[in-house]
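Record 1 of the preview.
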Amino acid sequence: MKLDRKNKLLIGLCVAAGLLILQLFSIQVLSSDFKNEASSQSTLRVPVYPRRGVIKDRNGKVLVGNKQCYDVMVTPKIVREFDTLEFCRIFDVDKEYVQNKFAEFKANAKRIGYQEVVLLKQVSKEKYTEFAEIKGFDGFRCQLRNIRDYPFNAGGNLLGYVSEVDADFIKRHPGEYRPGDYAGRTGLEAAREQDLRGVKGEQKFIRNSRNQIEGPYKDGLEDIEAVPGKDIVTTIDAELQSYGQRLMQHKVGSLVAIEPSTGEILALVSSPGIDVDMLAEIGKHYKEISENPYKPMFNRAVQASYPPGSCFKVMNGLIGLNEGVITPATAYPCSRGYHFGNHTLGCHAHTSPLDLETSIMMSCNAYYCYVLKNLLENKKYESIDEAMTVWNEYVHSFGFGEKLGSDFPAELGGNIPTANYYNKIYGKGHWKANTVISISIGQGEIGCTPLHLANFCATVANRGFFYTPHIVKDSEGVEIDEKYHEKRYTKVAPEHFEKVVGGMYRAVNSPFGSGATASIAQVPGLDICGKTGTAQNPHGDDNSVFMCFAPKDNPKIAVAAYIENGGFGATWAAPIASLLVEKYLNGEIRDERKGLEYRMLTGDIMWKVRVKKKK
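->
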């Protein structure tokens, strides 16, 4: 039957109506998208912040815990007149602050809409309880927060701080953070942020037509529980860290201690540092800290590049032995220094000539000038460029000149010069050993961090290998990278280490008056082996440097102390490092060394360090 135009139109309209009804049924009954959108207009989603993971020391002591506080939230759109004076009394804030905040909310009313915004941060549980008992504050709510608590002073530079994320941080971590979230920004808090932060949860509440909360949405069935952060067990010894900080008070520099058999960092002190009392309220103290001319936020232990000074003589001695340019019996003369042309690299008065062990014991400059000259002008290499490249490879095998790969953030790589570097400075073929002779005693273009120096000392203690230094241990739910359990061997054969260890032992344990440079570090029964350094400083007095380990056999601790403008290595660095070793191995300081301890604890040499003070 042929349909006329009218029937065709009628059928078409029926089909269209049917499709429309089917689509509406799908949207309203089968699809949850529009349901969710509609419900979102009548529900309030409140984030539930997880407990941040606790940070503990190697013995289980809590270095960073949590305590409860509250943020006062407000929905400006539904706030009516309230008792401003009563509000200010409860929370101890100025009336002007509250008025200014609400003026700000009003100016941004269109953007804020019915959203909640923060009015006050981190108010105490006591203030929250008092506020919760008073009526007349419609549109206000308190949201539970956990903030950091510091039961033990383990140093702000080591632990780091947590603060609210800003727009730049959110942009660098897309999808991970929202305004109002907190994150670790420095130190361990930043290094282990992924483990410590946990996962946010969410609560839903029903809102009526006046936007007032009436109760949980679906009796809380759609709420999401927060997942607490993982606890972190560090390698740090809290008591040792605290003692190291006390020793470094009123001094500028760093103190690093490592367990040679594992590479675990026992203490990492940067001075001056940030006191833990300031960390929980970093926002309040940030300006004061950032404007301090001594830069307490700058972690000198891993970020400062210093010349290692005479500690580096041990390196050149080891390379010389392995290359065969010297033997333990090789002796060189010293007449108040090394003389070349019209120049002299000076040295202090001591007996001459000296063999290898005695040169380490007395820290002879001339001896290592001869060693470097023999290394770089070694006839088995076709050119000084090739010899310099070999020397550079030896030094790098000990971890110098590159980031060690520790799990601590912002680690600096330091600098070890290359043949190409000197070719650019002097021209290819226009330099020789005497041109760069200062690197023989750890000066010139050599730069390293105190962490590098402590790791070098641990490598010597181990007789030729080290574990990458690290600050977090394996624990329940937290596994560290396998690389921290792997030995890293140097290019120097193990048998050559005993002779330099012998020299380091004699430097500390020889009698006073023998010419040994580190007798002040001697502790009966501990067999400390050490090497002093006095590193030249263009900005005032020399830097005082000392590295040591103990006991001589089966060593338990290796330490590097670096004190800016401290003068001779034996003046400040050696006493401080040896006290740290004694405290760790014996648990207390011997009576006869109490006077030395008092002098180190109370000594103030910060005034020697030149800083630019803001007017």
